[in-house]
Amino acid sequence: MTKLWWSPAGRIPIVVFWTRFLIPLGLILGTALAINDDGPLFMFVFLLVIWPSTVGAVKRLHDLNFPGWIGFVLWMVGPVLQVGWALFGSAPEPTVILRGWSGVPIYSEDIAFGVGAVWFFFFVFASVFISLSPGTKGSNKYGPDPLG
Asked: Higher-confidence residue: 81 or 64?
């Protein structure tokens, strides 16, 4: 069972992704949020489930015959961006990072929001895609068909 959540090798079908990764992840995070409401317990649980959810996404991508690094980037970059935003994104005084073509200032908050919005779009698209797409029939370069 630990290999399922900790090792990114291999493939998993949609049913396993939903029943062993998505639904438990939602229940765990929802419970932590209800108990602690954005406090340290929720942050600890959030950081604790990043790796297992990334592993599930990588295995689903393998089942779809896509490289796992896509899932790694999407599921690890988001939390890093969120932590970075929490630590460095907001400041008492707006910081001008650069100026646009007509001299309009572009602030650090604008850059952080834009990067986060682009990541979020790709994250949602990839999540829906791997959650609903049937896997490759038969063996592929990532292993045998998990459905047999």
From this structure: 64
